[in-house]
Amino acid sequence: MEEEVKGLGDYLNILWRRKVWIIVPAVLLAIATVVVVFSLPATYKSQGTILIESQEIPNDLVRSTVTSYADQRIEVIKQRLMTTSRVMEMVRKYDLYRTERQKMAATSTIVELFKSNVSVDLVQANVTDPVSGRAKRASIAFTVSFMDKSPQKAQQVANELVTEFLNENVKARTDRAAETKDFLKEEGDKFQAKVRELEKQIAEFKDRYSGSLPELLQYNLSMIERLGDEQNTNQNEILLLKDQITTLSLQLSTIPMYLPLGVTASTGNETSTSEVRLEQLRIEYSTLLSKYEPTHPDVVRVKRQIDALEKELGVTGNDAQVIQAELDQAKTELNTLSEKYADNHPDIKAQKNKIAGLEKRLENADSQPAETTTSSERLNPAYVQLKSKIDSTENEVSRLRVRQEEIKTKLAEFERRVSETYQVQRAYDELTRDHENTVAKYRELRAKQLQAELAQNLESENKGESFTLIEPPAVPSKAEKPNRPKLLVLGLGASMGAGLGLALLVEMFFGGVRGYTQVAHIVGKSPLVVIPVITTTRELARRKTLRNRWIIIAILLAIASVIAVHFYVINLEVLWYRLMRKVSLL
């Protein structure tokens, strides 16, 4: 046998039978809802709207130093305003939460209560990014609101919060610009000190290696080449002059220094043999004296010959001029030998001894009374001319030797400069590279400092991104909480639902025996016959009328619910827009 299935009519019968259990609880709960809703204290909300305005001057001309987004700055300002000290200051200023403070509630509790009544909401819109050209969501404004039981206090606190947001934004932006400028100035001063220190190091380096700098390398090389050429030229000239001195010395040795009385330069050749012989003996005598003692036989022999020729020619042996001439000639020969041999060479030593002997003879001759010889002889002009030529040549050689020493010293100095150039260049390049990099960074910092100063002026004159109050907080005329119409609708619906639920529970537990299944379950056996309910025409008409009434009531309730939702819960157009938006995201 089939199990009994309840239809809509059965449920309607149940509701009709239990109408008392539906109506009484629903009415009682509805009355309680009305009492509770209208007994709740009203909370008023005052709200101000602040517009986020972009920078008036284009960013290409003056770039702001504040790089954070408005959303971030709003949140930062909110956190600064919601500190315990500032919250308690506003609580005491506007005498908020007097009951809680009289009960000596904890400060944290009052602060949390204040924060729960503060609301900062962003207003976003679809905008076009000027850089990428794409559509995006951007914050164009934000609202600041405060809720309190007193509408005047709500307006005062909301106005205080709006003012603090505006002031904190200006203060934060100007402080950020000033800090950026000060930071760049400090860094610029540091790099300026570094630049000066590097310039000082470069100046000291140039003073220390003034001749070995890289830019003087070509000059030093050219000077080395020129001094080398001059050194070779002077050396060749010295050799030529030495040959001339040697030749002139040989010629001088064949010419007598003095001419006898009555003999002119043109006739001097008639007696030149004895005079030449006398000069040769004197030279030989000086040579022997440089080697031997005056008592040596060879020295004594040459001395007797010299005395005999001097008597023959009438020339005195103590003539200082003769000794001086021999001394000059001996010094010339010493210079010639010095160029060929070392100082410890025997010829050098012998020549030095000869010079010492001539100097001693010259001293003895000067100490003796001078005899007049001008009456019997005079200087040979040819000898004087040749001797002058030799002396001038020797002076030129001496000058060239001094010049050679100077060239040698300069050449060594220039070679040292060239050898140091590459090491100096490496150190100099490091210094100049550091100097150039530091100067470039210094200039960059100074340029950024100027930009930061412009940005500071931009912020101080409120030409940058700013917050503008477009709707100040007003004293609310309508309570924000509780939403009594909404609570009433919800309460009445809940009351009706509670009545229906209670009726169904009563029917479930105390509904009696109804239907084939329940009879079979209680008796334990299946009924022999099931007699269906015989409905008369009158009952059918009455049921139809009742059903129509319930349908009409349901429609009216549905219409009333839609109207209540539209006016007291949410606008139907907004609800439809949200539903369509959710569907489009699926």
UniProtKB/TrEMBL annotation:
<feature type="transmembrane region" description="Helical">
    <location>
        <begin position="550"/>
        <end position="570"/>
    </location>
</feature>
<dbReference type="Pfam" id="PF02706">
    <property type="entry name" value="Wzz"/>
</dbReference>
<feature type="transmembrane region" description="Helical">
    <location>
        <begin position="20"/>
        <end position="40"/>
    </location>
</feature>
<keyword id="KW-0812">Transmembrane</keyword>
<keyword id="KW-1133">Transmembrane helix</keyword>
<dbReference type="InterPro" id="IPR003856">
    <property type="entry name" value="LPS_length_determ_N"/>
</dbReference>
<protein>
    <submittedName>
        <fullName>Uncharacterized protein involved in exopolysaccharide biosynthesis</fullName>
    </submittedName>
</protein>
<feature type="domain" description="Polysaccharide chain length determinant N-terminal">
    <location>
        <begin position="8"/>
        <end position="83"/>
    </location>
</feature>
<dbReference type="GO" id="GO:0004713">
    <property type="term" value="F:protein tyrosine kinase activity"/>
</dbReference>
<feature type="coiled-coil region">
    <location>
        <begin position="320"/>
        <end position="448"/>
    </location>
</feature>
<keyword id="KW-1003">Cell membrane</keyword>
<feature type="transmembrane region" description="Helical">
    <location>
        <begin position="487"/>
        <end position="506"/>
    </location>
</feature>
<dbReference type="InterPro" id="IPR050445">
    <property type="entry name" value="Bact_polysacc_biosynth/exp"/>
</dbReference>
<keyword id="KW-0472">Membrane</keyword>
<dbReference type="GO" id="GO:0005886">
    <property type="term" value="C:plasma membrane"/>
</dbReference>
<feature type="coiled-coil region">
    <location>
        <begin position="167"/>
        <end position="208"/>
    </location>
</feature>
<keyword id="KW-0175">Coiled coil</keyword>
